[in-house]
């Protein structure tokens, strides 16, 4: 190979490295069961196609307050929340297809129609939203990325929180929960140092577990392993 060619390849690699986005998830491929397969077809009206633009436009009542859940897993707690709060609109974002299928299956069976889901990176979806348009962003039991070299993938980080804050309405909230103590400390350290956010439990504190937040699959697992659950609710104040 000529020197010129090698040089061109190195430049290409550098560019690739520079532009590669750090994502907060790993796509896992697992098979769908029969009801999940048919749910993707039967309840396809509940599934949005990326790119989606302003999420509010996909609801019969776009003026209602919008909750966006990032990484809902299998979605049961999201369906229960949507059912319990018919006066709000809910959008769940997940990259795990069996989770999308299970969530629409349960939403469809429960007759919930104030909930939409989509398969996408939540970061990209948030970027498409108008500023000050979301009433609540929820992030329950996000991947803790336990190894130091993976810390950059943790969702709660200053650059990602800046985007979340930009998209929240004034007075809107960011609600997270984790069963991983080191991530809880990390979250507090990031969130308590965001000038645009107010810790509703007071600086340095976690929020008492709200009984309106249904238990999630990963929360149940954490409890079974003897982990403490920490909730954090922060309000946008600037
Ligand atoms: C540890 S699981 C928790 C699932 C669920 N919230 C629970 O508590 O059972 C985290 C989920 O977040 C999803 N996730 C992580 N980053 C995401 C992103 N940027 N956009 C969409 N989903 C994401 C992953 O695919 C995974 O299913």
Task: Explain how this protein is built.
With 238 residues, the chain is of the alpha/beta class. It has one domain: 3-Layer(aba) Sandwich (Rossmann fold). It has eight helices and eight strands, in the order ααββαβαβαβαβαβαβ. The protein has helices at 3-19, 34-42, 76-84, 97-110, 122-128, 158-167, 181-191, 217-224, and strands spanning 47-48, 66-70, 89-94, 115-119, 134-140, 168-178, 197-199, 230-236. Strands 1-4-3-2-5-6-8-7 form an eight-stranded mixed beta sheet. Helix 3 (76-84) runs parallel beside helix 4. The chain is globular. It starts with a helix and ends with a strand. The model has no long low-confidence stretch (mean pLDDT 94).
Quick gist of this model?
By secondary structure, this protein is an alpha/beta fold. The chain has helices at residues 3-19, 34-42, 76-84, 97-110, 122-128, 158-167, 181-191, 217-224, and strands spanning 47-48, 66-70, 89-94, 115-119, 134-140, 168-178, 197-199, 230-236. Helix 4 (97-110) links the parallel strand 3 and strand 4.
